[in-house]
Amino acid sequence: MLKLLNYLALITSIVIAGIAAYFSVIGMATMFAGAYLGTVVMMTALEFGKLVTAAYLHLAWEKMNYLKWYLLSSVVVLMLITSLGIFGYLSKANIEVSLVGDGNSLELSILDTRIDAEKGKIERYQDRVANLDLVLSTGRPQDRNYINRQQKDERNQIAEDIDTAIGLITEYTEDKLPIQRKQLEQNSKIGPIKYVAEVIYGQEESVKYLDNAVRWVIFALIFVFDPLAVLLLVTSVALIVDKKPIPKRKTPSAQKKKVTAKPQPKVTNKIVLQVPKDKVLDLSKDK
């Protein structure tokens, strides 16, 4: 059973190390986008060398000279680089999500500004109509027909402008609906991290420190990701290479049987000599 667990631990460590290496390679290549392919090749070789060096150091530590300290420091530095690459990869994913949300918010704010502008036009048109009504109501009765004819074209134009503004408001409102739907979907994606921020900073301050909560989660992941893979690989390889037989534990029932076992009687070998009857001395005649 232990042998099976050793191989299972080895496979698990390779899988975790491979995933960590993928995140690290992509994250570092994103940081150095100008040499993307070269960074991928370099980081892939370093990730593979890190795992081999860690296992080799554990198995041959006592046989190596002072160079083992350099190899050990190299493994530690490469683990830090891997963690940095993972941090870059996850941070990039978080920034992309934030940019999508910010883009939606920007589009919604632009549409809201246009709607407010059209509403402002409608208010001005209504004020103009109120002024025309005031002029008409304050004029002399014999002049009202003349004033009404003079205002007719302007009133018609104002009515058309109000209808146009209302139509634009309706159009902008309809344009907001798909963006608002995307915004809700985006909020659902970042919903879990909002709850984490609320736990850490409280409900009122969570909006301000949302990015900090994301960083803490990333720090927790990189703290256990690559170190777990390296240590699990080293331990499993060492146990697989070790060929010493594992002593079996004696069960209490076996010990009890051993204590209560009855001692066997000793058997002694006896030698019996057979002598012919005519060769036996008659001791009674000698008497």
Explain the overall architecture.
The model is unreliable at 283-287 (pLDDT under 50). With 287 residues, the chain is mainly α. It has helices spanning 2-31, 36-59, 67-138, 144-189, 191-201, 210-241, 252-260, 283-286. The chain has one domain. Helix content is 79%, strand content 0%. The radius of gyration is 45 Å and the shape is rod-shaped.
The major pleated sheet works out as: none
- Structural class of the helices, strands and pairings? mainly alpha
**What is the helix content?**
over 70%
Low-pLDDT runs of 5+ residues are 283-287
The tally of helices reads 8
- The coarse overall form would be rod-shaped
Mean pLDDT: 78
Element order, helices and strands? HHHHHHHH
How large is the share of residues in beta strands? under 5%
> What is the terminal-to-terminal distance?
84 Å
Gyration radius over CA: 45 Å
How many beta-strand segments?
0
Taken together, the total number of domains comes to: 1
